[in-house]
Amino acid sequence: MAALHGLKDMTVDGLMHLHTKMWDEDLVRSIFTVRDQEEILAIPLFLSKTDDTWQWVWKNKGIYTVKSGYDYLLKTAQGVNGRLSQIGSSFGRLKYRQR
Predict the structure, then answer these.
(1) Please, what is the Cα angle at 86 between 80 and 92, to 5 degrees?
(2) Residue whose C-alpha is closest to residue 32's, from 17, 47, 10, 49
(3) Which of 32, 65, 81, 88 is deepest in the core (most CB within 10 A)?
């Protein structure tokens, strides 16, 4: 475990050869169990470099809105013990302070 101490702040890109867009197999095999090695090395790497972005997967354009969050809440609540009506009616009873 002491050898892993230096890996505490490592990110996934540290397991790759960024210039060739390939996994650093020696490093992956030296850190992970055989099962995890195979799982990691089976993940394909993209050849083009793109920046990471945040996206709301429940909206076509990937942009979060209060309405899309509310719609998601209603959809998921329908499957939770029929609590949709309880959640919807409770919004009307919320108390708030005026500023």
Answers:
(1) 140
(2) 10
(3) 32
Conformational region of residue 79, where left means phi above 0, alpha means psi within -120 to 50, and beta covers everything else: alpha
Q: What is the CA radius of gyration of the chain?
A: 23
Q: Facing residues of 17 across strands?
A: 22
Q: Could you give the CA distance from residue 9 to residue 16 in angstroms, rounded to a whole number?
A: 15
Bridge partner list, 92: none
- Band of residue 60 on the pLDDT scale cut at 50, 70, 90: confident
Q: What is the pLDDT of residue 89?
A: 55
Tell me the pLDDT band of 2, cut-offs 50, 70 and 90: very low
User: How many whole angstroms separate alpha carbon 24 and alpha carbon 68?
Assistant: 40
> What is the C-alpha to C-alpha distance for residues 27 and 14, in angstroms, rounded to an integer?
9
**pTM of the predicted structure, to 2 decimals:** 0.46
Cβ neighbours around 23 below 10 Å, total: 19
